[in-house]
Structures are given as structure tokens and as C-alpha cells.
Amino acid sequence: MRGPFRLSEQLEVPRAQRKRRTHAERTASTRSRIKSAVVEAVSECGFHRTTAAEISRRAGVSWGAAQHHFGDKDGILVAVLVDSFNRFAERLAAVPVEGKTLEERVAAFVAVAWEHFGSRDYRCTLEILLNMPPHDGASREHPLRGATLEAWSGIWDRFFGHAELSRRQEIAVQHYTVSVLSGLASMMRFEGPTGEHRQIELGFLEDTLVRTLGRARN
Q1: Does residue 180 share a domain with residue 86?
Q2: Does residue 140 form part of some domain?
Q3: Would you say residue 158 lies in a domain?
Q4: pLDDT tens profile 155-204
Q5: For the chain, which terminus, N or C, has the lower number of CB atoms within 10 Å?
Q6: Which of 38, 71, 104 is the last residue of a domain?
Q7: HEC string of 62-125?
Q8: What DSSP letter does each residue of 133-191 carry, written as one string?
Q9: Are residues 87 and 189 in the same domain?
Q10: Domain assignment of residue 1, yes or no
Q11: Do 110 and 195 have their domain in common?
């Protein structure tokens, strides 16, 4: 009889090698966790309870590490605002506008803009903005404001640059649009995410934009 069967080689299951993250990847991950912690904390606890300790706890990093990446709490808050605006701009940049009528462009703009303004991220953004020191006209303007206005104008021009409005009228319409969307976002605190009249209210905004943007310059 033959003896017991023996393996002449050792079976080995190759281990999946974990790719080591680069320093840039680790930095990006840490920064993202810190910013996400701010959004969560502000959304759940409110602006004034979003302390350095609360941000650190939620992000799983020391406050020293947060300061290393952003300088201070204000630096983190500004980074959250920038991220929020960039997501808004990316959403609108993906909307096709070539060959669309004014009504179609307005409808697409309002729908996509509300996806942003109606989100938890924007409600966090709004709380941060409402608690930032007011611009009194004498102190130096925050650089974020100028950069945001410039980027916003580029977005607006892509959708409505053909409109025959004076610059003063155009700025007024832009401010009006943001005011309406921000106001509806703030109402969600009282009404919840499915406000009974939300689509009707957004329809009013669409009607106003179509009438105003379609009006020839006086």
C-alpha cells in the first residue's frame, strides 16, 4: 500500500498588499474629516455649541492637528464655506444650457440651486454666515466675499449672460435669488424638509426670473 499523501510544497494564500496612502492622501482625509465634523456638529448642536472640543471629538483628531491644517476655528469655518460653494458650482456646471430657452434655463437653475440650498450642508453654511462678524463698511472686507461674488457671477453669466439688464439690475436679481433660496432654506427649520408649499414658492421664483431676465434694458 502507498503511504499517506504528502505535499512537497507549502500552500500559501497571497496576502493582499495594502497600498500605503501618500502624505497628500492622508492630509486630504484628515481635512475632510474635520470639515465633515463641523457640518455634523453645527447641524445637530447649533453654531455656538460647535466648540473646538466638539469638532475634535467628532473628527477623531486632536485640536492641535486641526490647527495644523486650518490655523484656527475660523479657518475651518471658511474651509467649510468654500467646500459648500464649490459643490454648488459643480452641480450647476453639469447642467447643459446650450440651445435651451430662457424658461428651460431658469427651471434648471432653480431646481439644481434648490438641491444645494435645501441641503443640510447649506443649512450649516447659513448658520456660519449668520454668525460671522458683520461687514461694517469700515473694516477690511473678508477675501472670501470677493472671491465668492466673482465665482457666482461666472455661474450666473453661463445661464443668463444674454439677459439685457444693466449691471445694477443684474446684481439686484442675483441678490434677490439668493435671498429667496436662503429664506426658504431657513424656513425648513420650522417646516421640515417637505414644506407643503415648497414647489409653489420655487415656481414663484422661476416666474419672477423669467419675467425679469426676459425684459429688455430700459
Answers
A1: yes
A2: yes
A3: yes
A4: 999 999 888 888 899 989 999 999 999 999 888 877 765 667 889 999 99
A5: N
A6: 71
A7: CHHHHHHHHCCHHHHHHHHHHHHHHHHHHHHHCCCCCCCCHHHHHHHHHHHHHHHHCCHHHHHH
A8: PP--SSSPPPHHHHHHHHHHHHHHHHHHTT----HHHHHHHHHHHHHHHHHHHHHHHHH
A9: yes
A10: no
A11: yes
Question: What number of residues does the chain have?
Answer: 218
Q: What is the pLDDT of residues 76-110, one digit of tens each?
A: 999 999 999 999 999 999 999 999 999 999 999 99
**Which single residue is written with the C-alpha cell 443649512?**
123
Count of C-beta atoms within a 10 Å radius of residue 22: 9
Q: Which residue has the cell 441678490?
A: 175
Note whether 52 and 146 are same-domain residues.
Answer: no
Q: Are residues 197 and 107 in the same domain?
A: yes
- Global pTM reads 0.78
CA distances from 31 to 34, 100, 132, 215 (A): 5, 39, 21, 46
Do residues 34 and 61 touch, judged by C-beta distance below 8 A?
yes
Amino acid letter for position 57: R
Q: Which three cell numbers stand for residue 66?
A: 486641526
